[in-house]
Structures are given as C-alpha cells and as structure tokens.
Amino acid sequence: MFNVQLSFTNATIFQFSSSFMVQHHLQLAAASSHGWLRATPSDGHSETSVDKRWDSLAFNPVKTDYIYVMKSCKDGSFSNGGLRHYGNIEISPSAAVLNYGQGIIENLKAYKNKNGSIILFRVEENGLRMRVGADRMCMPAPTIEQFVEAVTSTVSANERWIPPSNKGFLHVRPLLMGNGPVLSLTPAPEFIFLIYVTPVRNYFEGGLKPINVVVENDIHRATLGGVGNIKAIGNYAGIMKAQAKAKANGFSDGLYLDSIHNRYLEEVSTANVFFVKDNTISTPVLGGTILPGITRKSIIEIAHSQGFKVEERLVPVEELFDADEVFCCGNAVCVLPVGSITLNGKRVDYGESGFVVSQQLHSALANIQMGLIEDKMGWTTLLN
C-alpha cells in the first residue's frame, strides 16, 4: 500500500488515543492552566481582531487555528488521530476521492451560550449518518465515539473562533476521503478522516427572511438506487448548473422533483422541504433519494410535541399551490420560510399567515441549539 504524505504549515500534532472517552477529552480541553489544547492566535490575528470580524462574517471558509486528521489502518479501523495547525494537505493525483469521488461530508454547528459554554447539537447523529454513508460508498469510517471525540477536540481547540450566540456559530465540517492511489474503479487502499471549522454569521440575524424558489424540471438531484440519501460529495456538483440558473433568474434556489414521475417533491439544493396545511405538516418521505437530515428529524419531533400532525409521504408538486406555508430546514439555515414558489412560470406567494408555523418551529429548535432554553429533548452536548 502506498503512503500518502500530508504536509501542514507549522504542523504541530497533539495525539489522542482512540480509546479516550469524551469526558476525558473535555477534562484535557478544560485544563487551561496547562495550555495544552488552548488555541493560539495565528497569522498575527489577535483576540481583539477576531472579535471585530463577527459582523463581517459570511458563509465562506476562514482560516482558523486547528484541524483534526486521522488515517485508516490496514484493517480499516481508525486510530492515532490528532489536531494539527490549519494548513493545506497533499494528496496523490491518483487519490480515489479525486478520480472517482469516493468521499463523504458532514455538517454540524457549535454555539456559545451566555455563560461561555460550548454547545454541540446531536453530534452522535452526524457520526451515525457518516457510518451509514460510508458503508454505501465502500469506505471504513470512525466509530461514533471517535467521531464525537474528534469533533469535541477540534471545536475546543478553535474555541476563540466561536462567535457570540447572537452573532453566529462555528460551522463544523467533517470529511471522509479515499486518499490512497487508485487507477481502476476500486475502493481506495487508505482513507483520511478530517475536520475543519469556520465561523459563520447567523442566517436569521434581523429576523427570518423568506426565500423565493423555482421548481426545477430538467435536472434531478438524485435517482432511485443512487446516493441521494447520503452526503456523498458528488451529490452537490450535479446540481450546481440548476442552482446557478435559478439564481441568474432572480430566485434563491431550485426545488427538485423525483426523477421517475417528475412530479413529487424531493429537496431544495441543500435542505429538506416541508409544507403546512391547517394543522398538518407534510414532508417528502425518505425513500432512497432524500437525505435524512438531522434538522429534518428534529423538526418532525418538535412538531409532534407541539400538537401538529406530521405526514411523511409522497408530495405532489401541485399541493404547494394550496399550502398555507412552505419552509426549508437544514444544518446551516435551521428553519427558513419560503416566500414564493414558481412552477412553469406560475408563481404562488406565501406569507399571509405571517409564517407563524415556520417562526414557531424555528424558535423552538434554535433556542435549544443556542442554549437559550432547557433542552428537554436531550439533544445537546455541553462543553465547559
């Protein structure tokens, strides 16, 4: 097996045994008197300069302090992961992720509450989803314990980059990549698990702003038997053309239909979709082409707890014209109301109800994620 070299600028490595428990990790991270995991300002940026940048944040990568890297062993297990200073990595030109797209991404958020503690939301669910996706892509994956441990370490080491909760959050991006060299269509001989983070401004700063979407009739996001139900990296490149066309025509995004009947709702580019009629909330049923979003799952559970009837079913696109509200949900946007949908030149506008249900569900979920209310669902992990 070929070894792929990774090079990082000023690569300082903090090693962690994969057998460490998360609690032990937190004790290490909290041991500020030793300074072992405390991030230090990089590139000449002081703590003050970081504080001044919160208002200018966008959804773009920011060079933070540390990334986490862990390689697979010959038996497919992962071990000897650790933090390294943020920097570029070197991979072989014949790496499986470059030549055949053998890779998976995940997304989650870290907030700071008013007491300064860090809050992670349903991180175990992300670890589980990565393992399910990895199995579909013929890839080994870290255990859920290793995944949580790695996320915890990376977020703790980059603590100074977490905005105040009223300014934004830390976007956490785990990646699993086939990094061993291949020429034929075959699984990689080596895999890398990597995590980087970047601060992001709140999407809903100043209130929820409805988006306008157009139904895409020609390009499909996923097909039955494909990988639309996992976060394969190739899922997103295929819809860039449709998304660019939608934005060029003045829309925020495209809404995709199923590839067989070209009639049933699936997703917006990177978010699940729901619609509201009276006291019923409906969303497309998971059937192999729709991503089982963690935000989606949370919204369904919250809606049930608030007395709504929730239906997961095939949703014909025509039903949108009779809906009271439509909204999207995803990791970054939380819950985002849809102001209008256009299908074949016909536009339907929402908002007469004031997006009451969207606002209600958004507040319920965001307040848990940001630590503003008690988490009675048991979804959050608190890092002191």
Concise structural overview:
The chain is built from 9 helices and 18 strands. With 384 residues, it is an alpha+beta fold.
Key traits:
D-amino Acid Aminotransferase, Chain A, domain 1; D-amino Acid Aminotransferase, Chain A, domain 2; single chain; 384 residues; globular; 6-stranded mixed barrel; 9-stranded antiparallel sheet; 9 helices; 2 domains; 18 strands; alpha+beta; L-valine-2-oxoglutarate transaminase activity
Secondary structure elements and their pairing?
Blueprint lengths: L13 E3 L5 H9 L16 H6 L13 E7 L5 E8 L10 H4 L3 E3 L2 E5 L5 E4 L1 H14 L7 H14 L10 E11 L12 E11 L9 E6 L17 H4 L2 H9 L4 E5 L7 E4 L2 E7 L2 E5 L9 H12 L3 E5 L11 E6 L3 E10 L2 E4 L6 H14 L10 E4 L1
Parallel strand pairs: 9-10, 9-16, 13-14
Antiparallel strand pairs: 1-3, 2-3, 2-8, 4-7, 5-6, 5-7, 6-18, 7-8, 10-11, 11-12, 12-13, 12-15, 15-16, 16-17
Helix pairs in contact: 1-5, 4-5
Class based on secondary structure composition and strand pairing: alpha+beta
Per CATH, the architecture of the largest domain is Alpha-Beta Barrel
Low-confidence stretches: 1-45
CATH superfamily of the largest domain: D-amino Acid Aminotransferase, subunit A, domain 2
- According to CATH, what is the class of the largest domain? Alpha Beta
What's the tally of helices? 9
Query: How many domains?
Result: 2
In whole angstroms, the N-to-C terminal distance is 42 Å
Which oligomerization state do the chains in this entry correspond to? single chain
Order of helices and strands: EHHEEHEEEHHEEEHHEEEEHEEEEHE
| Range of helix content | 10-25%
Structure summary, number of beta strands: 18
Give the C-alpha Rg: 21 Å
The best one-word shape is: globular
| Beta-strand percent range | 25-35%
Give a quick account of the main beta sheet: strands, pairing sense, barrel closure: 9 strands, antiparallel
Mean pLDDT: 87
CATH topology of the largest domain: D-amino Acid Aminotransferase, Chain A, domain 2
